[in-house]
Amino acid sequence: MRQNPSFAMTDVQELRRVIAANPWATLVGRDEKGMTASHYAVLLDPDRDDLTLVAHVGRPDERILGLGEQELMVIFQGPHGYVSPGWYGDAAAVPTWNYVAVHLSGVPELLDTEENLRVLGHLVDRFEAALEHPRGMWAPPNDEAFVRRLEAGTVGFRLTPTRVEAKRKLSQNKPDDVIETVILELRGEGVYANPALAAEMQRAHDARLAARAGAE
């Protein structure tokens, strides 16, 4: 991902926030036949406070991704959407696309059976927790034999990234009044309304204003 210093994201806590909020990730690896992209839910390692990830893939995806043998890239896509040049007022402008993206790369560590079971359980709990009546991986009618057969069809991994590339392109190169107009448009009811992107832009804009005030 081509980086622009104005758009770079480097704060670990901000990166963790984006990853936690957007767990449906793209995994990019390769085997002798070339590159492959697969799609899985990927979570932050609950035992770490850095950018270490835990996840699993279904067999035989571990082979076509080269899992554990070479670098794997995991891509998280945050809020994104179209920005019309008409929102910039009378200034000369072209359309653009605002977005947040995080790319983490490294050679994954493959997990043994018991560790993989813990990761699978954590994954289920993470998403079931939002339900009124959550059901854990081990809850009846699932029994141990069923869960272990399920686990045997997966390969769990932990990835501590050795390369981190993250970008938050949210009109930071525009004047304050333009940024605020874009946010209002995204919060509106038009065809390109995008509340999630508006919230992300507001967060970045507030941080920018706070940093500017602190420097004065």
Give the key terms.
216 residues, alpha+beta, Pnp Oxidase, Chain A, five-stranded antiparallel beta sheet, 33% helix, elongated
Overview of this protein structure:
- The chain contains six helices and nine strands, in the order H-E-E-E-E-H-E-E-E-H-H-E-E-H-H.
- By secondary structure, the chain is of the alpha+beta class.
- It has a single domain (12-171), classed as Electron Transport, Fmn-binding Protein, Chain A (Pnp Oxidase, Chain A, Roll), CATH 2.30.110.
- The protein has a five-stranded antiparallel β-sheet with strand order 2-1-5-6-9. The protein has a four-stranded antiparallel β-sheet with strand order 3-4-8-7.
- Strand 1 (24-31) and strand 2 form a beta hairpin.
- Helix 3 packs across helix 4 (144-152) and helix 5 (176-187) packs antiparallel against helix 6.
- The radius of gyration is 20 Å and the shape is elongated.
User: How many structural domains in the coordinates?
Assistant: 1
Overall residue-averaged pLDDT value: 95
Unreliable spans are none
Report the sheet with the most strands, covering strand number, pairing sense and barrel closure: 5 strands, antiparallel
- This entry's quaternary arrangement is single chain
Instruction: Report the CATH superfamily.
Output: Electron Transport, Fmn-binding Protein, Chain A
Ends: how far apart? 33 Å
Radius of gyration: 20 Å
Overall outline? elongated
Strand numbers in spatial order across the main sheet: 2-1-5-6-9
Helical proportion? 25-40%
Annotation, overall tally of beta strands: 9
**Do you know the CATH topology?**
Pnp Oxidase, Chain A
- Alpha-beta content class: alpha+beta
CATH architecture: Roll
In DSSP terms, counting alpha (H) and pi (I) runs of 4 or more, how many helices? 6
**What letter string, H or E per element, gives the SSE order?**
HEEEEHEEEHHEEHH
CATH class label = Mainly Beta
User: Strand content of the residues, in percent?
Assistant: 25-35%
